[in-house]
Specification:
Number of helices of chain A: 10
CATH superfamily of chain B: ACP-like
Structural class of chain A: alpha/beta
CATH topology of chain B: Non-ribosomal Peptide Synthetase Peptidyl Carrier Protein, Chain A
Helix content of chain B: 40-55%
Radius of gyration of chain A: 22 Å
Shape of chain A: elongated
Largest sheet of chain A: 8 strands, mixed
Oligomer: heterodimer
Number of strands of chain B: 0
Distance between the termini of chain B: 19 Å
Structural class of chain B: mainly alpha
Largest interface: A-B, 33 and 26 residues
Strand content of chain A: 25-35%
């Protein structure tokens, strides 16, 4: 089975274009531009790992109006695996989500040997990328096309951060706003995408279908409610970055599912989202508040989040290894002061 | 008291979680989450560093606010859970 790839790392000479750019004229290979544009539209990122002179290569990309498509390009003389590791770190993407395309068999073999999770592709196949299953996401959402822009804004954010005396001052200056609102039908493609793409900040790994979500919307799923969260800051708009499902009983309120895009890690969003949901439950008067967690092998962050927010392992076993965590001290917890939370429904 | 543990923890936080030119002097009691220094992902990388550096295994059940909110509480946890912290190999030493 092929994993969905979220980033293609390109070699330049004789891969993206014919010829060697520091030796003279080059021509972008036919079909390559279309492939790049199409993958970009689907929310797949492009980066570069190429041995060359950075200024020259960047100039050629600019001349061909391709420079805007690439995030965190690495044009230098370092080994390609080293550059791919750096790209993976910069973008926060695991190797299983990356592909590398190069005409040189040595380079491809080297990457396969050092980083076996990275998919390697022969340069000849570049124009066919949009037809390969690893580049065909299940859902293409409005967020997908702006994913590149997000990473480009993220680089600006990182640059801006270095001018502040401390992190809190920087975060305060970002004007981070989180809006919580009920799920609507238009949100469904994005929510399905979040559920399938989000692994780290995902409390149970539960994946619902479009029909499941429609049932919740129509109120046909008992006491289940779905909430989505949108995020903006002074650098741009992240769109919908989180989803929560809650189940209510006569006196109990359970956070059945919580997923947040890992693109927004590092600014306390997960804490702000959780605290707001808990305040909501408390304001509704529920006395037993708990949350589900299932260890998926990749979501330790969420367990830590619950524990650090005062949840403790509760009694009562759930199906499929799901644990219940009970909230003990809701009154004492607060969200990060630099996140301005707006709630549409409480 | 020997401050080697606290110094090691701050060195990590300064290098990994704070802006490069951070001039603020934090106290050991600073809540690392409230100060925006750590979040739920940041704490896990930090825990990895502590496990390796101090040769400790920290079970998930111990990742609680009473132990992991501040440098002071983390240092106390490390002292309580290492047999002889004075001979522990310091990271980067």
């Amino acid at each position: 089975m092929s994993e969905i790839r979220k980033c293609v790392v390109w070699d330049l000479d004789n891969t993206l274009w014919n010829g060697v750019c520091i030796e003279g004229d080059v021509q972008v290979r036919p079909g390559v531009r279309r492939a790049i544009e199409e993958l970009d539209r689907r929310g797949i990122l492009h980066s570069i790992a190429s041995r060359s002179v950075e200024e020259v290569a960047r100039e050629v990309l600019k001349q061909h109006d391709l420079d805007g498509f690439f995030v965190v390009p690495k044009i230098n003389w370092l080994p390609k695996p080293t550059n791919i590791i750096a790209i993976s770190k910069d973008l926060g993407l695991p190797f299983e989500a990356m592909a590398f395309i190069d005409d040189d068999r040595f380079e491809r073999e080297q990457v396969s040997y050092m980083l076996p999770e990275v998919m390697t592709i022969e340069a000849q196949r570049a124009e066919g990328l949009p037809l390969m299953p690893p580049f065909i996401p299940l859902e293409i959402t409005s967020e997908a096309g702006s994913r590149r822009q997000f990473y480009q804004e993220e680089q600006k954010r990182k640059k801006a951060e270095s001018t502040f005396p401390n992190r809190e001052a920087f975060l305060d200056s970002c004007r981070i706003r989180l809006v919580l609102r009920p799920l609507t039908e238009e949100d469904i493609p994005r929510v399905l995408e979040l559920m399938s793409r989000t692994h780290q900040l995902n409390t149970t790994g539960e994946v619902l279908s479009r029909e499941d979500l429609l049932r919740i919307l129509r109120g046909e799923s008992g006491q289940t409610t779905a909430v989505v969260a949108d995020l903006t800051d002074r650098f741009g708009n992240y769109g919908t970055i989180g989803v929560a499902l809650t189940d209510t009983g006569p006196t109990s309120w359970t956070l059945r599912y919580l997923a947040i895009s890992c693109r927004v890690l590092g600014r306390g969003i997960e804490r702000a989202f959780l605290v707001s949901l808990l305040s909501w439950a408390r304001n509704l008067g529920f006395s037993q508040i708990s949350a589900f967690f299932r260890d998926t092998g990749r979501n330790r962050e969420m367990r830590v989040l619950y524990q650090m927010m005062g949840f403790r392992r509760g009694g009562g076993s759930q199906d499929k290894g799901t644990m219940a965590f009970d909230a003990r001290t809701i009154d004492a917890i607060s969200g990060p002061p630099w996140v301005d939370v707006r709630c549409d429904f409480f | 008291m020997d401050r080697l543990i606290e110094t090691t923890l701050w060195k990590y936080l300064r290098e990994n979680c704070l802006p490069q030119n951070c001039e603020v002097v934090y106290t050991d009691d600073e809540n690392l989450f409230d100060a925006g220094i750590l979040d739920s992902a940041g704490i896990l990388t930090f825990v990895c560093f502590i496990e390796e550096g101090f040769n400790l295994k920290i079970p998930d059940e111990d990742l609680l606010p009473e132990y992991f909110s501040s440098v002071a509480s983390i240092a106390a946890y490390i002292r309580a859970n290492t047999a002889n912290p004075s001979i522990t190999t310091m990271p980067g030493a």
